[in-house]
Amino acid sequence: MNWIGIHRQWPAALAAALGVIASLLLFDHARKTAEDRLSAEFSAQAESRGRELQEALSRYEGTIEGFAAAFPYENIDTDRFRAYAKTVFLASSVLRSGVESIAWVPRVSGAERPAFEAAARIERRDEYTVRDKADDGRLEPAAPKADYFPLRYVEP
Hints:
Helices cover 63% and strands 10% of the residues.
């Protein structure tokens, strides 16, 4: 073996090894810096989106609470519900809440169902009955149960 030849080349080998080590360290530092920057940017965007979502939800909540407070529970009929819906849509367009339709779906107990259906038949002049969706998608008369939540009015 030629130890003298190897002995003469060690400064170049050391310089090359130090160069490779320095390059790897610089690469690792640049990678970590980029990851930290991306993480900070993602966190800032997530916080911004969270605030925007919270503001939108607060607007919707306030809108719904206001509409609920103004709902004409007494003597509700098609005309009163339609007039109420118009105020909801007017406010919705001003508040940009995105309301597209509004419906009244009252809670009706099993004992109240016959009277509820009879009143709806008189008002609508049709064969109104509380219905449920069957497995195949058809609407059929609802089976007896403790409570129902039938769609009574919807606008538009």
